[in-house]
Write a structure and sequence with these properties.
It contains 6 helices and no strands. The protein is flat and about 70 Å long. It is mainly α. Helix content is 85%, strand content 0%. The longest helix is centred in the N-terminal third of the chain and has 43 residues, at 30-72. It has helices at 4-24, 30-72, 80-97, 103-123, 125-128, 133-173.
Length: 174
């Protein structure tokens, strides 16, 4: 089972509660619910983003020192003692700045499943908001009809363009 599905269910449940709350006070607009929900998720993820930005800034400060260490041991890839010294010096630089080598990755690993789940919720809103399920069938039929006409029009334009290109290429050969 994917880790994204339970997170999406939780986020969908929160969005459903938010929509029902807005509907109860007379603002039954899904767009407003989505905007408020997005702002709420953004505020909850803000501490992770701030920490990631701090790690990125520290990494840019540490990069010259790490590059100098790499230059110092350049060409000694086959020497295991030199490689261990290089790793020890690199580790010392990270400890000097109080940063973990994997520090900035942790925040991304926490944020990515949440963002993927959020995308899933927005992509399949009728599955998560109970009051929209009935209306979604009507809108789904209309959307399928509109998209099919759009693709049909695009295919016709593509065929005409291809025909013009081929006609021009054949005339150019004559």
């Amino acid at each position: 089972m994917s880790i994204i599905k339970p997170i999406a269910q939780l986020l969908g449940y929160i969005l459903d509660i938010l929509f029902m709350g807005l509907n109860a006070i007379g603002i039954g607009n899904i767009a407003i619910a989505i905007i408020i929900f997005t702002l709420l998720v953004k505020m909850l993820m803000l501490p992770l983003q701030i920490k990631q930005q701090k790690m990125t800034k520290l990494q840019s400060v540490m990069n010259p020192e790490i590059k100098a260490i790499q230059e110092k041991y350049k060409g000694k890839n086959s020497d295991t003692v030199a490689m261990q010294k290089m790793q020890a010096e690199t580790k010392a630089v990270y400890e000097k700045y109080g940063v973990s080598q994997w520090g900035s990755c942790v925040q991304l690993l926490i944020q990515m499943p949440i963002l993927f789940a959020l995308y899933r919720v927005f992509q399949q809103i009728p599955l998560y908001i109970s009051q929209i399920k009935v209306l979604s069938l009507i809108y789904l039929d209309l959307m399928v009809l509109m998209v099919s006409h759009l693709f049909q029009d695009m295919l016709i334009l593509l065929m005409r363009y291809t025909e013009r290109l081929l006609t021009g290429a054949i005339q150019a050969q004559l």
